[in-house]
Amino acid sequence: MHFAIIVRILGLLLxxxxxxxxxxxxxxxxxNDGTHLAFLSSFFITVIIGAALWAPxxxxxxxxxxxxxxxxxxxxxxxxxxxxxxxxxxxxxxxxSLTDSIFESISxxxxxxxxxxxxxxxxxxxxxxxxxxxxxxxxxGIIVIAVxxxxxxxxxxxxxxxxxxxxPAKDNKLTPRIADTAKWIFFIYFTLTFxxxxxxxLAGMTLFDxxxxxxxxxxxxxxxxxxxSMGYFDSPAIKLIAILFMFISGVNFALHYFAWRKxxxxxxxxxxxxxxxxxxxxxxGIVCCVILIVTDTYEPSQALLDGVFQAxxxxxxxxxxxADFSSWPTVLPYWLIxxxxxxxxxxxTGGGMKAIRVLLIVKQGIRELKQLVHPxxxxxxxxxxxxxxxxxxxxxxxxxxxxxxxxxxILILLLLSGLDYLTAFSxxxxxxxxxxxxxxxxxxxxxxxxxxxxxVLCGSMLLGRLxxxxxxxxxxxxxxxx
Length: 482
What we know:
It contains 21 helices and two strands. The chain has helices at 3-20, 22-31, 36-54, 66-84, 86-90, 98-109, 125-153, 178-202, 207-218, 236-249, 253-262, 266-270, 272-294, 300-315, 332-340, 355-373, 390-416, 421-432, 451-465, 469-472, 477-480, and strands spanning 382-383, 386-387.
């Protein structure tokens, strides 16, 4: 383990992260909202500690080992989550405890969107902007790690796109060098954010709200600058723009890259995961709209718009809301949370188990049913015309089993903390899937649950964001043996 290199990289990350605090500092000065000292102090604390970590080992330039990558990837989110909490903790409004500050920061960076803050409409503009910025930074960090880093470590949803399933959009790296991959991903990410922002602005949002909501839309984060979330604007045009960009952001960014470079979109339709992703969104939306119409919850036109909006928002794990979906009739609240388990595509900003894994699990189930009828038949699992190897299927089932085990462990911990079952179940689902909104006591916000539960959920958000294995491998004895 090259600890000197790891410390050097973390120091550089902290110094780089400190620069992002200057933007909300300028926002605070521009709006004269009184929080400039909190951001200025946070900047100096972060940059000084980052420099203190980097300076003693700045000349270390060894190659990173396999295990170094796991540790850096996990520490990346944990350390930035801690330092990202500084502005919340130091600001007079909102006056958050250390636990709440860390919860809000980790929720933002992991693009979960669960919040402990109420009264968003009355918060300083700089704090509102900072929350949105955290999600945007977390979103691009997720994609770069998912597409460029995790495949090199042999894990993650993108690992399913190795040589076993070849194709034009199935390379481990989109370009020969990781630096080029990250550059192109950032360019696409920034372009989508800009176009989304312009769409919101032209549809009637203020420029401030348009910037903030474009950040959380493309990051599939769900933070809003208003307590009523997207329902605040009461605009069909804004809802339609949000639906479009939430859906786009849930697609594998490798496909966006090839669409950009080759000026064609046909590979979206030939890709098995994106086809399955589209089908799941359509199915979820149709059921929502039908139930809302049949139960006379809304008139048909509003039921169609709000039903599709909430279906896409929850199924992509964004977490925006146009209404209190927890009060919707029959099974709808549970139906929406169920689809959050599927989530977005691999290599996207979406959470959940990822559509490709769920697709392969479904195919495996179908194969087992056929095998019962034809015990001696050899029935391969295929994605289009390409056979999926047993090694990939073992990896998928291992992920699924550990995922369920972690879900149950977190659920039990929350029940032990005193939460009721509905709250504990939905909070676990919302955190491990990086969804945000839940049911019961966390349907509006997480501020009223106990401190222990908040720390458990912080760990759950990190666990879900790092796709389980990246974090759990740090707790195995073999990882630390020479």
